[in-house]
Task: inverse folding
């Protein structure tokens, strides 16, 4: 079985082709829109996607060495993401499915981030720690859905680090040579400052820490590296703590970490230390597949298609706020 | 040093997220030893601070709730230096296991849990980690354990966070029977603090749950 997947929820127009046996990934082509300044301008992204789409699809089919009639189904991200961007992928996928008479598979972007990670590490039933720019959550499969075991009560870890870096005038750019500015500034830190550490049950909260850190900074009496160090230690420790709570609570023996913040080498080593004490298999999705791509959409589409999930093209609406725990997961035992 | 105070062997019964728990004999009593272990991933100063603060607060709150007549383990001994507590061992099943075994038939205990939570809130304490693993059923009664994240507070926000955590724990772990369980909990809570108070709490819970989403929206707008 071969599935072609299309991703277009934010910066990336990605097309992947996958198969249900080794080597699984047949093609992975991406066209990434980079705004000239600031964040995404949806109009610009849309025209960029429209311009690149035909080529990206053709290249993917070439790379896979197949013609489109050999594809069994077309998968597409319907959400969550930016509406205008999502609509480009959805429109193209609907057209392909209709024209070539292929089933259309509606894929949730967040679920896809998790499923590609499971494929990479051959995980069966991991606790998932999801740390992207928009999300901070702990989830795992229970009674047919990814249930949320823990999350942030206010801002995400990525958003917290970025905001702090900006307010401390350390960014942009936020990440230099694989190191976040906060991690960079923390390298010279030595003294631990007592700032709010907030864990509530399986949840974290960062807004109190952000406010307290900035207040301290504005007194002008604090050593900046010490501040970065203390804040970083508190924020990462809180994340590792709720992950550990998730493991203790669910009894899972695998832990999958997805999302951009997992690229932090400091956070990684903390997670590794915890996992090794608890005797848990840890898989941190490498940057190549942690960012948006079409392969994860194709792969998730394939899993869904095997369970006969598809959508009629005229009903394939985009859902900007489609949450991970709203999707029925039929393909796990 | 520590070993000498026990009248029996230490038997490891659980490795929680924070602590190792042992069952043993202390002053001829059936006892539970809870030691918060150092975490290799934490800055040493932060590690020491968290362990001793939480141990201290847990000890204080256990003692206080027990004095107020609420069903929590009796406190026997506190050692802040080693982040160690010794308390009464409660022989029974956790509510979590009971739900797995008997499904929706255990609503009675959820009602008791609701009553307990309201009484605890009334004394000015919030639990901070209300899950079904932290409720033990013994002789048809419930005991609540693990006050490591508890604190003194009368704020609606903190009480609502307790309710939010309880609901999420039930939703994520006992999804298929959640309706009946949550209904029983609320009945118990209302019996103590009244319909109106509970309604206000639920409003706040909604607000807490929405906060994450507002953030997402803000982020999207920032991107645009
Ligand atoms: N090396 C690094 N160390 C720490 N943080 C990093 C690193 N690299 C990226 N990040 C952070 O990761 C976040 C972006 O992650 P990601 O690309 O997964 O999310 P997104 O696509 O923006 O969000 P979402 O998928 O939720 O819409 C940013 O906050 C960024 O600062
Ligand atoms: N006094 C007690 N008697 C019997 N069993 C207990 C007692 N205290 C705790 N337990 C059991 O041990 C488990 C772990 O204890 P506790 O929650 O205090 O540890 P923890 O490390 O703080 O856990 P976590 O942080 O994972 O919630 C509890 O869920 C409960 O089932």
Result:
């Amino acid at each position: 079985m071969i599935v072609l997947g299309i991703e277009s929820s934010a910066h990336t127009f990605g097309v992947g082709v996958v198969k249900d046996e080794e080597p699984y990934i047949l093609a992975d082509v991406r066209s990434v829109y980079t705004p000239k300044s600031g964040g995404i301008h949806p109009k610009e992204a849309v025209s960029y996607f429209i311009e690149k789409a035909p080529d990206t699809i053709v290249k993917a089919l070439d790379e896979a060495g197949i013609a489109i009639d050999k594809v069994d189904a077309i998968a597409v991200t319907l959400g969550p993401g930016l509406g205008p961007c999502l609509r480009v992928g959805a429109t193209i996928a609907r057209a392909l499915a209709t024209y070539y008479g292929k089933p259309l598979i509606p894929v949730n972007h967040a679920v896809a981030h998790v499923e590609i990670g499971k494929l990479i590490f051959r995980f069966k039933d991991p606790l998932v720690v999801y740390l992207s720019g928009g999300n901070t959550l702990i989830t795992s499969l229970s009674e047919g859905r990814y249930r949320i075991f823990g999350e942030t009560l206010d801002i995400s870890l990525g958003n917290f680090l970025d905001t702090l870096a900006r307010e401390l005038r350390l960014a942009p750019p936020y990440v230099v040579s694989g190191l976040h500015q906060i991690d960079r500034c923390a390298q010279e830190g030595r003294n631990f400052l007592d700032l709010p550490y907030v864990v509530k049950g399986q949840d974290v909260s960062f807004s109190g820490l952000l406010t307290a850190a900035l207040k301290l900074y504005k007194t002008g009496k604090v050593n900046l590296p010490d501040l970065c160090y203390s804040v970083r230690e508190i924020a990462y420790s809180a994340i590792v703590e709720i992950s550990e709570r998730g493991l203790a609570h669910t009894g899972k023996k695998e832990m999958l970490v997805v999302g951009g913040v997992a690229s932090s080498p400091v956070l990684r080593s903390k997670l590794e230390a915890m996992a090794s004490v608890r005797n848990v298999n840890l898989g941190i999705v490498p940057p190549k597949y942690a960012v948006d791509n079409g392969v994860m959409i194709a792969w998730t589409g394939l899993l869904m298609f095997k369970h006969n999930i598809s959508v009629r093209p005229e009903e394939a609406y985009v859902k900007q706020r489609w949450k991970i725990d709203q999707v029925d997961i039929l393909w796990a035992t | 040093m520590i070993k000498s105070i026990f009248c029996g062997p230490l038997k490891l019964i659980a490795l929680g997220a924070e602590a190792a728990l042992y069952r043993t004999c202390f002053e001829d009593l059936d006892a539970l030893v809870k030691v918060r272990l150092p975490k290799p991933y934490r800055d040493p100063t932060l590690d020491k601070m968290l362990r001793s603060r939480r141990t201290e607060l847990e000890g204080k709150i256990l003692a206080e709730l027990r004095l107020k007549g609420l069903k929590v383990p009796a406190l026997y001994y506190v050692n802040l230096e080693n982040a160690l507590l010794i308390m009464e061992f409660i022989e029974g099943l956790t509510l979590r296991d009971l739900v797995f075994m008997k499904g929706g038939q255990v609503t009675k205990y959820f009602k008791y849990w609701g009553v307990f939570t309201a009484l605890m809130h009334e004394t000015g304490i919030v639990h901070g980690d209300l899950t079904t693993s932290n409720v033990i059923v013994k002789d048809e009664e419930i005991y609540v354990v693990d006050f490591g994240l508890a604190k003194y507070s009368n704020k609606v926000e903190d009480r609502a966070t307790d309710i939010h955590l309880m609901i999420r724990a039930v939703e994520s772990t006992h999804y298929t029977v959640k309706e009946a369980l949550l209904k029983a909990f609320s009945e118990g809570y209302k019996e103590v603090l009244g319909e109106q108070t509970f309604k206000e709490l639920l409003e706040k819970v909604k607000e807490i749950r929405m906060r994450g989403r507002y953030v997402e929206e803000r982020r999207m707008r920032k991107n645009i």
